[in-house]
Write a structure and sequence with these properties.
By secondary structure, the chain is of the alpha/beta class. 27% of the residues lie in helices and 18% in strands. The protein contains 10 helices and 12 strands. A 12-stranded mixed sheet has the order 7-8-9-6-5-4-3-2-1-10-11-12. The longest helix is centred in the first third of the chain and has 13 residues, at 54-66. It is globular, with a radius of gyration of 19 Å.
């Protein structure tokens, strides 16, 4: 296996959008069964041998860092069900050119490993949390324990993680009545709540039942209780639009905080896309909404060198579309489930 850092021209797509952000799934397994992420019966998973090894992951990240990737986000499934994850974080953090290794997690197992992840070099955390009501949380996640997730977030704060992002997928009829409570909870604790439009990903989830709440509707609802001041251009690798938020009438001890909105469906932000995804099995997806994948695992296990990997990556980027095809009134745009894509 080649391990030396290669010199490469920057990775760009045919619209001259540079790739600086890699979302890397380390497993497609998950201990939740969220209604927007996978079918109720779960999925049939292949053997562990189908997952990229740590050595293969490191090789890919090293190659892509040589082409300009600076931020790596570890996703799943649920990344914390992958054994020895802190060891992988340490390996990726040491790669030349990688400035940030961050992770998105459901937080259920965060309490036992937050300190180890911080010590290994993880620079940021995003925790998925769609409800603060115990019964509703269990319904959305199909069995998840809210108390364990909240304890995990507290453990992460104690371990030194600051500005923890809380991702909430807002679904009409499930949790759209909790916006005020979730903002208050996050601001009081210094976390950054990010409200996400429900996306038409995966053919067997609950999409198609009128569940997508447009960001404009969220902003209007929150504006009745909160002042929302746009922060304009904020240095960020992701698509969220951020606002300074303060409670009207001074209800909050902390006074004000920051919230974000991700308008994945109703306000397209594809013209600024800087991301690619690699699935747990090594499938390179140039776009979340496009099921075309390039099998990087097959190339590596077939003995191909880094030049062949680079050619495959550039070929995938050159085929990347200008924009996704999300439509609030349309059907799901991918057959593959979010849990299998890597979020």
């Amino acid at each position: 296996m080649e391990t030396a850092q290669r010199r490469m021209e920057p990775l760009v797509d045919r619209f001259n959008r540079p790739v600086t952000y890699l979302r890397l799934s380390v497993t497609d397994r998950c201990n939740f069964r969220c209604v927007y992420c996978m079918p109720a019966e779960g999925l049939d998973f292949g053997p562990n041998s189908t997952l990229l090894t740590f050595e293969e992951i490191e090789r890919l990240v090293r190659l892509m860092a040589a082409g300009g990737v600076r931020r790596v986000r570890l996703t799943g499934g649920e990344p914390l069900v992958r054994r020895d994850l802190p060891a992988l974080v340490a390996r990726l953090s040491a790669i030349e050119g990688v400035d940030q290794v961050v992770m998105t997690t459901n937080g259920h197992q965060l309490g036992r490993c937050a300190e180890a992840l911080r010590e290994a070099g993880l620079t940021g955390l995003t925790v998925s949390l769609d409800s603060l009501d115990e019964a509703r949380f269990a319904q959305i996640t199909r069995g998840g324990e809210l108390s364990a997730v909240l304890a995990g977030i507290e453990a992460a704060s104690r371990a030194g993680f600051e500005g923890i992002k809380i991702n909430a997928v807002i679904i009409r009829g499930f949790n759209d009545d909790e916006l005020d409570d979730m903002v208050a909870w996050a601001v009081e604790r210094g976390h950054i709540l990010r409200m996400i439009e429900f996306m038409p990903i995966g053919a067997d989830t609950i999409w198609g039942q009128g569940g997508c709440v447009p960001v404009a509707e969220m902003e209007a609802s929150l504006g009745l209780r909160w002042s929302l001041e746009p922060l304009g251009e904020v240095a960020s690798a992701g698509p969220a639009r951020y606002f300074r938020v303060a409670g009207r009438g001074g209800q909050l001890r902390r006074g004000e905080g920051k919230v974000g909105f991700i308008s994945a469906v109703t306000r397209c932000f594809c013209d600024g896309c800087n991301r690619v995804r690699v699935t747990a099995q090594g499938g390179l997806r140039a776009c979340l909404a496009d099921d075309r994948e390039v099998d990087l695992r097959a190339l590596m296990r077939g003995g191909e060198g880094d030049e062949a990997l680079e050619e495959a990556i550039r070929g995938s980027l050159w085929g990347k579309l200008a924009s996704h095809s999300f439509n609030i009134d349309g059907g799901a745009v991918t057959r593959k489930q979010m849990v299998s894509i890597g979020g």
